[in-house]
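Re: your question from the hallway

Yes, I did run it. Sequences:
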Amino acid sequence: MIVRDLAKEILTERRVDSDGWSSVRLLLKDDRMGFSFHITTIHAGAELHMHYKNHLESVFCMEGTGSITDIATGETHTIRPGVMYALNKNDKHILRADAGAPMMMACVFNPPVTGKEVHGADGAYPADAALENSA
Amino acid sequence: MIVRDLAKEILTERRVDSDGWSSVRLLLKDDRMGFSFHITTIHAGAELHMHYKNHLESVFCMEGTGSITDIATGETHTIRPGVMYALNKNDKHILRADAGAPMMMACVFNPPVTGKEVHGADGAYPADAALENSA
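Structure:
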């Protein structure tokens, strides 16, 4: 059994900070669960253009409000606590947090993130490989 | 892209109620994400003896407090918001919610739950098969 506490792990290398978001990876590939599990904070007012070409991701909103736009369909969905979206088609999307407060999200990635990826210029994590900070 | 709202899905067949807990399955096997994602409420004061022999599960506590005992080691861990446990060894365990308030948990199962399983007398979900309510 693995037991981890967000309050502690946020102070370790499991925490990654990027432009507009930060994330604490509570489970990574080497935990051998077959998925990774991240608690991700989207900064208030952030607008993130993302495209995970190599991963399926589900995102459950625990705190905060915002929206997600599905680039393929042009549809925009409101995000608030209790709303989940799943990028079952590796959907290219824009995620926005409303001004005033961050959004806190529980995220699942399949295949699991290794922890060594960085978002490329194309908004994707690379496919799993022995990557160091390559972008 | 799949978008689902807990406030709506709690009124559908995605919600299952059992002794000491209820769960809303926001993602199931047929969503083809490779995992299932459930928001599960553990009733205040409940003590649940569980053993998922056929699934790995991670559980992130969003609300409430309680404890989990790992039967193999005898260790008991406190659960409060921000604590995650992962049953990476199909760990037999006892989950308790403190009296006074329920615990609300974000749960991931691999392989994904189909939605047709019920907990057997042994505290497990059966392996994936064309099961109807068999226990």
